[in-house]
Amino acid sequence: MTAAIIDGKAVAAELRGEVARGAADFAGRAERKAGLAVVLVGRDPASEVYVGSKVRMTRDVGMESFEHRLPAETTQADLLALIRRLNEDPAVDGILVQLPLPRHLDAGSVILSIDPAKDVDGLHPENAGRLANGLPGLAPCTPLGAMLLVARAVPNLSGLEAVVLGRSALVGKPVAQMLLSANATVVVAHSHTRALPDVCRRADVLIAAVGRPELVRGDWIKPGATVIDVGINRLAPEPGAAKGRLVGDVAFGEACAVAGAITPVPGGVGPMTIACLLRNTLDAARRRLSIAGEG
Ligand SMILES: Nc1nc(=O)c2c([nH]1)NC[C@@H]1CN(c3ccc(C(=O)N[C@@H](CCC(=O)O)C(=O)O)cc3)C=[N+]21
């Protein structure tokens, strides 16, 4: 069997088109554009690239982008003071603090300080709790993107077995909650799980989110399964090359021979993450407008 490739780049472009239409409608009703503030502390080169494309795509869908680039030496107090200002700024609907933060800063308390109504990363414990309890709120972007790609291959998850590899607060836990809400039978596997290949082989839907390059081999996959590869790992450069290759958590070539459908890296979940960030910003803006009684 040769797996169908789920084209995350194309699905993300479609979603950004929908968001652009929604953003235009919002701007008409609110008499202002929806706004996303991105906070980047320090000069991590990978983060610079992500923030650059977030800013560009935010403007492309007709939203306002507010960039805050702070020096690596920024203190916790200064960062918290900025978040407080953004929480109070009526032009800001979404706040994203790019992670990881420099080591002297405490990401947990920074996330706690974000107004949950503006937490478009879905990382505030209030939003994590809302997701776990099936209440409306803002959900993390990468899991949302992964679920939209699952839906392309498997429109109905009811009764299927889903295995999530990884238990992070950013991806593994929230995606497990979403699969459960969609009536899948969910197993969350991690570094302590015994007989990992056997556990993975049960999966009708396998979500790999551990950040270990090509950990999942072809023979870990149930024939015909849907494989969503969340990992983005840069390998060491080949001699003479400036940059190493990007690979996922799944050995793509081997997996293609077994799976029914699979997402590539790059061009899979990555582009969906940014598109879902824009969608969350639009959702947050609409909700804030209706709470203000203008909508
Ligand atoms: N608060 C916070 N929220 C995040 O969502 C967040 C973050 N911090 N810190 C960094 C990670 C990483 N991340 C990616 C987004 C898009 C691509 C993406 O579009 N990747 C392209 C390829 C990019 C390339 O070529 O390097 C792809 O997979 O096709 C990748 C990674 C969001 N993150």
TrEMBL record:
GO terms for biological process: L-histidine biosynthetic process; methionine biosynthetic process; purine nucleotide biosynthetic process; tetrahydrofolate interconversion. Pfam families: THF_DHG_CYH, THF_DHG_CYH_C. Keywords: Amino-acid biosynthesis, Histidine biosynthesis, Hydrolase, Methionine biosynthesis, Multifunctional enzyme, NADP, One-carbon metabolism, Oxidoreductase, Purine biosynthesis. It catalyses: (6R)-5,10-methenyltetrahydrofolate + H2O = (6R)-10-formyltetrahydrofolate + H(+); (6R)-5,10-methylene-5,6,7,8-tetrahydrofolate + NADP(+) = (6R)-5,10-methenyltetrahydrofolate + NADPH. NADP(+) binds at residues 166-168, 232. PANTHER family: C-1-TETRAHYDROFOLATE SYNTHASE, CYTOPLASMIC, C-1-TETRAHYDROFOLATE SYNTHASE, CYTOPLASMIC-RELATED. One of its GO terms (cellular component) is cytosol. Residues 140-288 form the Tetrahydrofolate dehydrogenase/cyclohydrolase NAD(P)-binding domain. Its EC number is 1.5.1.5, 3.5.4.9. The keyword Zinc-finger does not apply. Residues 6-121 form the Tetrahydrofolate dehydrogenase/cyclohydrolase catalytic domain. It comes from the Bacteria. Transmembrane segments: none annotated. One of its GO terms (molecular function) is methenyltetrahydrofolate cyclohydrolase activity. Homodimer. Belongs to the tetrahydrofolate dehydrogenase/cyclohydrolase family. Catalyzes the oxidation of 5,10-methylenetetrahydrofolate to 5,10-methenyltetrahydrofolate and then the hydrolysis of 5,10-methenyltetrahydrofolate to 10-formyltetrahydrofolate. It comes from Aureimonas flava. This is Bifunctional protein FolD. InterPro entries: Aminoacid_DH-like_N_sf, NAD(P)-bd_dom_sf, THF_DH/CycHdrlase, THF_DH/CycHdrlase_cat_dom, THF_DH/CycHdrlase_CS, THF_DH/CycHdrlase_NAD-bd_dom. Pathway: One-carbon metabolism; tetrahydrofolate interconversion.
